[in-house]
Amino acid sequence: MKYRHRLFYYKNPYDTQSDNAFLNAAKENFIYQYTHCKEYGRIADGLGITADTLQTIDDIPRLPCLPTLLFKRHRLKSAPTLIRATSSGTSGNFSEIGFDIGGLLCALRMSCKIAQKRRLISLIPCHYIVMGYKPHRGNRTAVTKTALCATFLAPAINRRYILKYKNGAYSPDFEGIISALKKLDNSVFPVRFMGFPAYTFFLMKMMDEQNIHIRLKKGSKIMLGGGWKQFYAEQADKASFYRLAEKVFGIEDKDIVEFFGAVEHPILYCDCPNHHFHVPVYSRVVIRDGTTLNPVPEGTVGLVNLITPMVSATPILSVMTDDLGVLHSGSQCGCGIPTPYLEIIGRVAPTEIKTCAAGAAEALKEASK
Q1: What pLDDT score was predicted for residue 365?
Q2: Which of 7, 42, 184, 336 is 20 to 30 Å from 91 at the Cα level?
Q3: CA nearest 170: which of 130, 207, 209, 208?
C-alpha cells in the first residue's frame, strides 16, 4: 500500500494538487479489494469495473459504490483486522468495520494534521466533558472511540461522561454534568466539550432555563461529532446553538468545532472557521442523483457518496451514505481553504435507498452459493 502511504503523508491536508496521488491510492486499494474479497470482486465484475477503468481522477465516481445499508446486513472482510468498530445502530442494525494496522496509522497521521490545522492540539491541560458514551467493554461504537481519542488533543485533567452504563443500558446524567460544571466555574484551566451535539444542546438549554450561566476559562471549546441521530427532529440551527453557547458558557462560535464522518468512511471532516466541511486530500466526495445515481454538478442536492483508500481490511473504498448533501466550490467559503466543501442537508429513510443496495445484495447472494 505504498500509494496510500504517500497520500496520507501529504504535508497540507487540503492540497489541491493531490489528484494523481489519490488516483494511484484508489487504484491500489481497488486491486486489493478485488483480489482479497470475493463479494467485492463479484460486484465489480457485475458492474464491468476493472483496474483499467481508473485512468484519470474523473474515473473515480465509476468505482463500485456500496451503500452503508449493505454493511449493516453483511459482514464483508478483505484481510485480518487489528480492531473492529461499529456504527451506533440507532435503527436496530449496525455496520461492523475492520481496520488494519496500516489504515490505523494513516488515521493517526490524518487526525494530527487536521487537528493541527484547526489549532486543536494544545499543551495546556483541560477538563473534558464528554457528551457521549462512557467507554465500556461491550461498547465498540466508532463514535465512542473517536470521542475518547479527541480527549488526547490536549492533556486531560479529568474526563466526565454524560452517558453512563448502568443495568445493561446507557442513560444520560445531566444533573451530574451540571454539578461538575458549577465546580469548574472558577477553574484556571479551560474546559473542552466533546460529543453529540444533541446532548450538548439539551444541556445548555436546561442550564439556561435554570438560569445557570458560567464563564469558562478562555480557550475552552465545544467539539461536536456524531450527529443528532434519533434527536433529528429536535435539531437546532447553528446560529441558535452558537448563541446559546455564548450565553451559557461564554464560548464564542470561533471556539465551536464540528466533525463529520461515518464508521463506513473513517475520514475526519473538521469544519473550518466558517463552519464548512472542506474535503481533505484523503477523500473525494461525489454527489449523486437520487434516481439515476449519476454524479450531479456542484451546487446540486443529492445522495452523498464518500470515497477513500484508507482501509484495506474492509471494502469501504467507495460508500453511498443515506445523507443528502451539496458540494460547493471552496472559493465560496472565504476561509482560505481551496478544496470543495460538503454541506449536509438531511437524511433519507432506509426504504428510499433500498434500491441502491439491491444490486450489491444480489451479487452477495450469488457469491455465497
Answers
A1: 44
A2: 42
A3: 130
The count of other CB atoms within 10 Å of the CB of residue 344 is: 15
pLDDT of residue 103: 95
Q: Total structural domains in the chain?
A: 2
Same domain, 242 and 320: no
In angstroms, the Cα distances linking 333 to 272, 330, 341 are 9, 6, 8
Residues 70 and 125 in one domain: no
pLDDT score, position 66: 96
Lowest mean pLDDT among 52-66, 128-142, 211-225, 270-284: 128-142
Instruction: Check if the beta carbon of residue 273 is closer than 8 Å to that of residue 256.
Output: no
Mean pLDDT of the chain: 90
C-beta of residue 3 within 8 angstroms of C-beta of residue 25: yes
Q: Which residues contact 272 (CB under 8 A, 6 or more apart)?
A: 118, 278, 333, 335, 337, 341
Looking at residue 294, which CATH number applies to its domain? 3.40.50.12780
Asked if the structure places residue 296 within a domain, the reply is yes
Can you spell out the DSSP letters for 243-310?
HHHHHHH---GGGEEEEEEETTEEEEEEB-TTS-EEPPTT-EEEEE-TTT--B--TT--EEEEEE---
Q: pLDDT (tens digit, 9 = 90+) per residue, 316-339?
A: 999 999 899 999 999 999 999 999
Residues 194 and 311 in one domain: no
Neighbours of 82 (CB within 10 A): 13
Give the separation between CA 246 and CA 5, rounded to whole angstroms: 41
Closest-CA residue to 161 (of 149, 146, 172) = 172
In tens, the pLDDT along 12-56 reads 999 999 999 999 999 999 999 999 999 999 999 999 999 999 999
**What does the alpha-carbon distance between residue 318 and residue 67 come to, in Å, rounded to a whole number?**
9
Q: pTM for the full model?
A: 0.88
Which residues, 6+ apart, have CB-to-CB distance to 66 below 8 Å?
40, 43, 315, 316, 318, 319, 320, 360
Containing 190, the helix (H) or strand (E) segment is none
Q: Give which of 193, 243, 240 is closest to 216, Cα–Cα.
A: 193
Do 188 and 242 belong to one domain? yes
